[in-house]
Amino acid sequence: MKYEILCPECRKAGRKGKILAKCEDLNGRGDLYLFCKVCKKEVLVKVEDISISS
Description:
By secondary structure, the chain is α+β, with helices and mostly antiparallel strands. Helix content is 17%, strand content 43%. Strand 3 (31-36) and strand 4 form a beta hairpin.
């Protein structure tokens, strides 16, 4: 199943979440550092939070 990773900083500010990445069959542990062009911040996304195995 395909998922879209949205910017949590944009959502906190009340804007529609910007799509940072798309993933499919993501498993494991670790961190992803993605850059949002809208809020101009580097966003930490934990793989455990978006993993489909949990």
